[in-house]
Amino acid sequence: MTLSRLLASLAITAALAMPGLPAPANAQGGPLRIEITEGVIEPLPVAIPPFIAESPAAEQLAADLTRVVSADLTGTGLFREIPQSAYISGVSAFDQTIQYADWKAINAQALVTGAVNVDGAGNVTVKFRLYDVFSEAQLGEGLQLDGGSNAWRRLAHKVADQVYSRITGEGGYFDSRVVFVSEEGPKDARRKRLAVMDYDGANVQYLTDSASIVLAPRFSPSGDRVLYTSYETGQPEIFLLNVGSVQRQQIPVPGDAMTFSPRFSPSGDSVVFSLSQGGNTDIYAMNLGGGQPIRLTSTPAIETAPSFSPDGSQIVFESDRSGSQQLYIMSASGGEARRISFGPGRYGTPVWSPQGDYIAFTKQNEGRFHIGVMRTDGSEERLLTASFLDEGPTWAPNGRVIMFTRESAGAGGTAQLFSVDISGRNLKQVSTPGAASDPAWSPLLP
Q1: Confidence at residue 254, expressed as pLDDT on a 0 to 100 scale
Q2: How far apart are CA 114 and CA 95, in angstroms?
Q3: 145, HSE (Cβ side, Cα atoms, 13 Å)
Q4: Could you report the per-residue pLDDT of 242-290, keeping only the tens digit for each?
Q5: Angle between the N-to-C axes of helices 3-17 and 152-168, in degrees from 0 to 180, rounded to the nearest 10
Q6: pLDDT score recorded for residue 72
Q7: Which residues does residue 147 pair with via DSSP β-bridges, in sequence order?
Q8: How far is residue 163's CA from residue 63's CA, in Å, rounded to a whole number?
Q9: Is the pLDDT confidence value at 23 over 60?
Q10: Where are the alpha helices (DSSP H) in 337-442?
């Protein structure tokens, strides 16, 4: 089977999971035009020989880069790495002629080659190429990336993003970060602080201390700021934190109102949130440059967890105005809302996908919690997980993967981060130093 045919199989899964996405390009650069309504794929066999160290200082770095690229690709569930023990020939120089017959013999469908150099100043250069083995052709142009020695993981993620995108036709998501709540202590006395990490759990940095409870961090569209809720004054209030400087400021609101569940607008210059005052909870918006909060809903119900559509024109939120927790969509300027959730159970924490075609949510029904997705009109509801407690979905930058919190039952139960493909495949735990909850995915890093 050629790589182009396997690309078609990948397009089948993409069509099932996310109809409307463009089909991937084939090995010759032309688009695949496929309309298939059902199908199952096997992971694509890919060979990733160790990247070549082009200087003595690059030897360990080349091994580390190869390891991260491999982990990124195989972690998607769409790729299967062929073990080096099966290789007939290797790659000893970046510009050597590819012996396609040797790679065909071990059924490698794609081949990734790379080289790493470290100069005297410690600057790192990474080069890579991607080959369609059965078509005996390079897939896309070779690429060279440069960075400092402390940015080597980002360089590896960028290589993996390029490989992923060229084979699947979808945007990558490996060069991104996740902000979350790091938890310590027993279930009835948890200490919580904000932390940020690479999407795969590496490079954890703490942004706040654990002196007060923090909840629901949310990245800005540019990835340089985080909104979150803090109880440091004894009641929930929203803070805006600069990730680089760790400087923060409170979002001012009038009187003794409680504020929570913040989220940025797509432009990043305003915020939408819940404000509770006088026993009533509604959704408000406010420009971060100044001004007063603008009320967007006005009912006796509890209205919370707002999330903008990618174009900023609409907001999805949860409300119990119908008697139970359900999902609604309204204009970003407020006004009449339409209900979109109608299945059994209760729905909450909706989040619009980056492509704008799906909404992820938490569902509680018959004693179980689920992470699910539905179309923006409420159709095609699909539950991806089921457990004692799954909640708080967040989308990868390409809209293919969802990360969420899973908490185990019992007095000793702990919260952990998990991810799942929106087809419902490839459910796995995300590595964190300890208990973790409330993840929020950043956009791709610049």
Answers
A1: 77
A2: 10
A3: 22
A4: 999 999 999 988 778 999 999 999 999 999 999 999 889 999 999 998 8
A5: 90
A6: 98
A7: 124
A8: 18
A9: no
A10: none
Tokens read off for 418: 């998990």
Tell me the C-alpha distance between 114 and 117, whole Å: 10
Burial-class residue 339 by CB neighbours within 10 Å (0-12, 13-18, 19+): middle
| Cα distance from N-terminal residue to C-terminal residue, the chain | 37
Residue 336 vs residues 251, 307, 329, 378, 399: alpha-carbon distances, Å: 27, 16, 9, 17, 28
Residue 39 pLDDT class (50, 70, 90 cuts): very low
Length, in residues, of the chain: 446
Domains of the chain, with CATH numbers?
3-168 (3.40.50.10070), 177-441 (2.120.10.30)
pLDDT for residue 21 is more than 70: no
Buried b (16+ CB within 10 A) or exposed e, 263-297: bbbbeeebbbbbbbeeeebbbbbbebeeeebeebb
All residues at 6 or more sequence positions from 416 whose CB lies less than 8 Å from its CB, including other chains: 405, 406, 407, 408, 429, 430, 432, 435, 436
Confidence at 186, pLDDT banded by 50, 70, 90: confident
Q: What is the pTM of this model?
A: 0.90
What is the gyration radius of the CA atoms in the chain, in angstroms? Answer: 23
**Residue 367 burial (CB < 10 Å; 0-12/13-18/19+)?**
exposed
Check: CB of residue 440 under 8 Å from CB of residue 181.
no
Q: What is the C-alpha to C-alpha distance for residues 407 and 146, in angstroms, rounded to an integer?
A: 40
pLDDT digits (tens, 9 = 90+) for 326-373: 999 999 999 999 999 999 999 999 999 999 999 999 999 999 999 999
Q: Do residues 371 and 362 make contact, with C-beta atoms less than 8 angstroms apart?
A: yes
143: exposed, middle or buried (Cβ count in 10 Å: 0-12, 13-18, 19+): middle
Contact 192, 182 (CB under 8 A): yes
Could you give the CA distance from residue 407 to residue 429 in angstroms, rounded to a whole number?
12
The pLDDT mean for the chain works out to: 90
Show Cβ contacts of residue 274 under 8 Å, excluding neighbours closer than 6 positions. Answer: 259, 260, 261, 281, 282, 283, 284, 303, 304, 305, 306
In sequence order, the 6+-apart residues with CB closer than 8 A to the CB of 370 are 362, 363, 364, 383, 384, 385, 386, 390
User: Among candidates 296, 247, 289, 245, which has minimal Cα distance to 275?
Assistant: 296
Q: What is the pLDDT of residue 253?
A: 85
